[in-house]
Design a protein that fits this description.
The protein is mainly α. Helix content is about 70%, strand content about 0%.
Length: about 150
């Protein structure tokens, strides 16, 4: 039986070493033929991915709800209107540089700024640039903690 204490240095608490069942349900592992087993594993993976995606979306919505309002008060360039004005007045090359500069600066409101910028690009049907901004946004989320 596993202890409730945290593991000590050099001690592993893997499910295999503790002789516990794996994350994948037993009926999937011991299922009929190889094809059924593979389908079961894929369904379980899809369910896990879906659950993780929903959790990330809930967290992103909460961050956006809390962060955008305070960011707009503290930094007037972190507003939808400002981003839309920039998108309509800049060239494609300038917009690419804007995405890079927001990411490179990695300031206090960079995640919110990039999220707003990405949604503005999508609203203006600039899907290639929106993809670039989305990738940069994911990298920034890895660097910054939520507000």
């Amino acid at each position: 039986k596993p202890s409730s204490r945290p593991p000590s240095e050099g001690c592993r608490k893997s499910r295999r070493l503790l002789k516990l069942s794996s994350e994948i349900s037993e009926n999937v592992v011991t299922g009929g033929n190889e094809e059924e087993r593979q389908e079961g594993i894929e369904k379980e993976r899809e369910a896990i991915v879906k659950e993780c995606r929903e959790a990330r979306q809930r967290a992103a919505m909460e961050v956006a709800r809390l962060g955008v309002e305070s960011a707009a008060r503290e930094n007037p360039t972190a507003t939808y209107e400002h981003c839309l004005m920039r998108i309509r007045s800049m060239t494609k090359k300038g917009l690419i540089n804007r995405v890079r500069s927001i990411e490179r600066a990695a300031g206090k409101h960079c995640v919110i700024k990039m999220a707003i910028f990405k949604s503005c690009l999508q609203d203006e049907n600039m899907w290639e640039l929106a993809k670039l901004a989305s990738e940069a946004l994911e990298r920034l989320k890895g660097l910054q903690s939520p507000p």
